[in-house]
Design brief:
With 143 residues, the chain is mostly helical. 62% of the residues lie in helices and 10% in strands. The chain is built from six helices and two strands. It has helices at 15-34, 41-53, 58-64, 69-81, 103-124, 129-142; strands spanning 85-90, 93-101. It has a two-stranded antiparallel sheet. A hairpin with a 2-residue loop joins strand 1 and strand 2. Helix 1 (15-34) crosses helix 5 (103-124), helix 2 (41-53) crosses helix 4 (69-81) and helix 3 packs across helix 4 (69-81). The longest helix has 22 residues, at 103-124. It starts with 14 loop residues before the first helix and ends with a helix.
């Protein structure tokens, strides 16, 4: 066929496939480390962002953690059910609700920071120190 590209398509060399495999590895490491605490990656993102930022609207929390509205709604609902997060009226606008960590949520996040750092270390362990910095820099550019 005229104009046909005769290069062989190799799935294992494609960026999407490699990113998915790397994500699967990172998720498996995360779930193993956080299993006893029953915290998912999206829940950890919400918890750690609330610890860093304080009270946030659900919408703003979703934007900061790159979660769509349906996902952040489910995450918030589960964290509220576990009494790690509470919903309260925004002191600046009583029509709006904000999410904030409960005391139990703050304690859990503070206890899990070292575990979270360990997850990152383990995920990046196959790379040399300079490669880690380059890899993270390139991921930030892609995202």
């Amino acid at each position: 066929m005229a104009g046909r590209d005769d290069r062989r398509y190799e799935l294992e060399a494609q960026v999407g496939h490699l990113l998915r495999r790397a994500h699967q590895r990172a998720t498996a490491i995360f779930l193993a480390a956080m299993q006893e605490h029953q915290v998912t990656p999206t829940q950890w993102a919400a918890l750690s962002m609330l610890r860093a930022e304080g009270s946030l609207s659900q919408n703003h929390l979703g934007r900061l953690t790159a979660m769509d509205p349906a996902t952040i709604q489910g995450v918030a609902r589960r964290l509220i059910a576990r009494k790690l997060v509470c919903r309260q009226a925004d002191p600046d606008d009583r029509r709006r609700a904000v999410l904030r960590l409960t005391e139990a949520g703050e304690t859990l996040v503070d206890r899990l920071y070292e575990t979270a750092f360990g997850i990152s270390r383990e995920t990046l362990a196959p790379l040399a120190a300079a490669e880690r910095e380059t890899f993270l820099s390139l991921l930030r550019r892609l995202s």
